[in-house]
Amino acid sequence: MSHSDRLQKLTVQLAERSYPIWIGKDLLGFADKFLSECISKISHAVVVADENVTQDLYPALSTSLSKLNIRVSFYTVPSGEKSKSIAEIEKLWEFMSAEHSDRGSVVIALGGGVVGDLAGFAAATFARGLKFVQIPTTLLSQVDSSVGGKTGVNLSQAKNMVGSFWQPSLVLIDLNSLASLPDREFSAGLAEVVKYGMILDATFFEWLENNIDAVLRKDPAALIHVIQRSCELKAQVVSADERETTGLRAVLNYGHTFGHALEALAGYGVLLHGEAVSIGMTMAARLAIHLGMIPSDILSRQSKLLERCRLPINGPSIAHDVLWQAMQKDKKVQHGKLTFILPTEIGKVRGVEGVTFQQVAEVLQGN
Fold first, then answer.
1. How far apart are the first and last CA of the chain?
2. Alpha carbon 75 to its chain's center
3. What is the pTM of this model?
4. Domains of the chain, CATH where assigned
5. How many whole angstroms separate alpha carbon 307 and alpha carbon 218?
6. Which of 34, 37, 112, 101 is nearest to 72 (CA)?
7. Which one is catalytic: 44, 84, 249, 286?
8. Is residue 100 among the annotated active site residues?
9. 243 is an active site residue
10. Is 69 a catalytic residue?
């Protein structure tokens, strides 16, 4: 393959469920080779694609899949968070049934996090489990949701509440897909990138402070570094705590307890996921200051970087008790207790239980 000099490969280490992540340019045209390396005996592919990416990206994938001499079924999903619903997953199951999907079928997600989560949940549940491939096309899905095996759909007031852990066999990240990504979507992806620096890697956070302009210009070397380092950090956490049983994986929820509640209350799609996470990280850092865990300069550095990424740090006006109630529906509530992931320094966070409504209300009031 002529692009091997620019190809990056990572492996998510999960014993017999380990899988590769390939990062590079022009990879869709070689999808048949990557698939053949990872999955034996494919007879049928169900491509689940975001309606917005089909024109740009599907032709290259389709040409590549035709080299495998397999049956290909193509299903489009309306863009946006509203598609992560029980109604949409039911439609997809019915389509897969009508297309005679079986244990020899592989489900391929071509799109952002919504499509990845929806297609992954279909793969996890149809015929009690089919092979699954992620081809993430947004920065957010490339650095976060495509890695780690979380799949699922939303309920009306609770994000990602119904789902399962289902690891892909392959993640294929083609940088070409970012060329047509709207600026707002690109910035939303950077929220998760900043998160990785905050929770796990102070050196990476500092690199972002120094190189964010190159990233925003979509400089290829800067982009590859951002995606590769984010995937490495996510893969480390997932390998150590695949199903969120030990608490290690919980660090990835930094900014998400506030963020998911804001996203649901604003109405899915009003705030992009990354925008909600950016506001959530700001609220979490303010809470950490309020609890005496960090000095205020950590919040300043985080806020400055988020704003340079063109992300919001202040949320919509929502009554404090309404936000608090929405946070109680977070799927990470255990035994009725909500755990906040809060920073102790740049590059480190920890879970804090026992935070009261009063403390959160004071932070939201700016005290």
1. 58
2. 21
3. 0.92
4. 4-178 (3.40.50.1970), 183-364 (1.20.1090.10)
5. 17
6. 101
7. 249
8. no
9. no
10. no
CA distances from 294 to 30, 160, 285, 286 (A): 48, 30, 8, 9
Q: Among 84, 150, 159, 286, which one carries the catalytic annotation?
A: 150
Catalytic one of 253, 263, 275, 332: 253
Catalytic: which of 131, 234, 286, 332? 234
Confidence of residue 56 (pLDDT cuts 50, 70, 90): confident
Whether the CB-CB separation of 274 and 188 falls below 8 Å is answered with yes
Active site residue 184: no
Query: Does residue 353 have an active-site annotation?
Result: no
Q: CA 27 to CA 135: how far, in whole Å?
A: 10
- 234 as an active site residue: the answer is yes
Give the span between the Cα atoms of 105 and 28, in whole angstroms: 19
Q: Is the separation of the CB atoms in 179 and 137 below 8 Å?
A: no
Whether the pLDDT of residue 2 is over 70: the answer is no
Q: Is the pLDDT of residue 113 over 60?
A: yes
Which among 256, 263, 286, 332 is annotated as catalytic? 256
Question: Is residue 217 among the annotated active site residues?
Answer: no
244 is catalytic: yes
Which residue, among 352, 337, 231, has the nearest Cα to 285 in the 3D structure? 352
Catalytic option among 273, 275, 286, 332: 273
273 included as an active-site residue: yes
Catalytic residue flag (residue 350): no
User: DSSP character for 337?
Assistant: B
Angle (CA) 87-93-97 rounded to 5° is 145
Full DSSP string of 168-232: -SEEEEEGGGGTT--HHHHHHHHHHHHHHHHHH-HHHHHHHHHHHHHHHTT-HHHHHHHHHHHHH
Catalytic position from the list 41, 69, 128, 367: 128
Report how far residue 259's alpha carbon sits from residue 279's, in angstroms, rounded to the nearest whole number.
Answer: 7
SS3 246: coil
Q: Span 53-64, mean pLDDT?
A: 92
CA distance 265 to 255: 16
